Amino acid sequence: MPPSIEDRFAINDLFVRYTTALDAGDVDTIVGCFTEDGALESPAVGKYAGHEGIRAFSERFATMHKRGVQLRHVISNMAMTVDGDSAQVTCYLTNIITMDGKSQLMPPGRYECELRKVDGAWLFKNRLVILDAPFALPGI
User: Fold this and answer.
1) Is the dihedral of CA 8, 133, 126, 69 positive or negative?
2) pTM (2 decimals)?
3) Euclidean distance between CA atoms 113 and 37, whole angstroms
4) What is the CB neighbour count within 10 angstroms for residue 135?
5) Could you give the CA distance from residue 49 to residue 86 in angstroms, rounded to a whole number?
6) Is-contact 82 3, C-beta < 8 A?
7) Alpha-carbon distance 88 to 91, whole Å?
8) Would you tell me which of 23, 33, 80, 99 could form a disulfide with 89, CB atoms 3.0–4.6 Å apart?
9) Rounded to a whole number, what is the distance in angstroms from the first to the last CA of the chain?
């Protein structure tokens, strides 16, 4: 079913909050974007589950930011279906990484996500990253 305009904006806000928190190394915001039993999987960083696992991922990811490595996550072409308190969302993903004063485009890909509405807020239940080519993040 097509989402309401309120759900569409709230889901978009979740994706923007998550990607900008990744870029800023904001661990608490990243963890807060997931359900208690939420999970993420990425070929660049592995698999993590539950708030404890998501926190471990976020802390590892934040070390890049602390070392002066800057990521910029750019999301586009978001498509979603909503069924009550569940949603399926996919979008394209473009990442730019800057290290030592040089910027590089990482392989593009997409997010495939299962969302749940918890206490009126949309959160990630399962988040899968699919890249078009292999890529290893430095120091992760």
Assistant:
1) negative
2) 0.94
3) 14
4) 15
5) 19
6) yes
7) 10
8) 80
9) 39
Residue 2 is given by DSSP the state P
The closest of 12, 9, 128, 8 to 76, measured between CA atoms, is 12
Could you give the residue ranges of the DSSP H alpha helices within the chain? 5-24, 27-32, 50-66
CA torsion sign for 18, 44, 112, 59 is negative
How do the pLDDT tens digits run along the chain, 140 residues long? 689 999 999 999 999 999 999 999 999 999 999 999 999 999 988 999 999 999 999 998 888 878 889 999 999 999 999 999 999 999 999 999 999 999 999 999 999 999 999 999 999 999 999 999 988 877 66
User: 13: Cβ–Cβ under 8 A, 6 or more apart, which residues?
Assistant: none
Token pair listed for 80: 């979603």
Task: Point out which residues pair with 80 in neighbouring strands.
Answer: 89
Pull the structure tokens for residue 17.
Answer: 């909050």
The rounded distance, in Å, linking the Cα atoms of 80 and 3 is 7
> Where in the chain are the domains?
5-131
Write the burial class of residue 40 (CB in 10 Å: 0-12 exposed, 13-18 middle, 19+ buried): buried
